[in-house]
Write a structure and sequence with these properties.
Length: 254
């Protein structure tokens, strides 16, 4: 049984999405954080004040911090994860939370990473299939983080690899896909086209200069993506509220 039709509307404004992510702690460890943003409340406050259309958290942070911010912004629960300590060649992201966890926390969507091309790809496909099927029964959408990675992948951000990842997300039943930017709008247009009717989001990536990041936003949106999932380029910024306002104007038109 296919299950209920899922809806992305709660995560969208003006037909676009602008998500704030703070799910990096498990994968990157503390290296992304400073004395301010190591405190999840600091980032939760930014999410609440800056009118993002969704906020991405792992289960543990959601359980301990989300109660004070619930209702101010839609929650996207990330339900798998890995550390960067594990070998990159055989990269695998295991389930760490369930669809029922997401429902009990009041999440509006689920986030799930698959490393396309990894030797562990088949297991990740199987894991995702179970999550996606259960999520569809509840009518909750699933956004896939689709990243080419592993010993068989030579160029993770090439046009061909990123487009392959986007198409894989479509074929596996994701409601939207988050991919890395390929570096120029012409090649990224092919990624968007490869995803068909499935909405495409660009990952924000590592901290860049404000000028370079705003240029990236313009290019991604011109290529037909519906938005961004950004983390470090907001909460590592010295003026996160100002940067968020600039992003909203470019992505959401407000």
């Amino acid at each position: 049984m296919i299950g209920k039709k899922t809806h992305m509307s709660r995560l969208m404004r003006n037909g676009h999405m602008l998500l704030l992510a703070m799910d990096q702690g498990i994968e990157h460890g503390p290296r992304d954080f400073n004395e301010k943003n190591i405190n999840p409340d600091y980032v939760c406050e930014i999410a609440s004040k800056c009118k993002f259309t969704g906020f991405i958290l792992q289960k543990g942070v959601a359980l301990k911090y989300w109660e004070n911010y619930a209702g101010s912004i839609p929650l996207i629960l990330k339900v798998n994860g890995r550390t960067e300590i594990n070998p990159k060649d055989d990269v695998y992201s295991s389930p760490v939370a369930s669809v029922k966890d997401a429902i009990s926390l009041g999440a509006d969507a689920i986030g799930y990473t698959i490393y396309v091309g990894s030797p562990m790809e088949a297991k990740m496909f199987n894991d995702f299939s179970a999550i996606e099927q259960e999520a569809r029964e509840y009518g909750i959408p699933v956004i896939m983080w689709a990243y080419p990675r592993g010993k068989f992948v030579k160029e993770e951000k090439s046009k061909e690899m990123v487009a392959y990842a986007a198409r894989t997300a479509l074929e596996l039943g994701a409601d939207a896909v988050k991919v890395n930017y390929t570096g120029d709008p012409e090649s990224f247009k092919w990624v968007v086209k490869s995803a068909g009717k499935m909405p495409v989001l660009s990952a924000g990536g590592s901290k860049a200069s404000d000028e370079d990041f705003l240029k990236k936003i313009k290019e991604v949106m011109s290529a037909g993506a519906i938005g961004f999932a950004v983390g470090r380029n907001i909460w590592q910024n010295d003026k996160p509220l100002e940067m968020a306002a600039k992003m909203r104007k470019l992505v959401l038109g407000e």
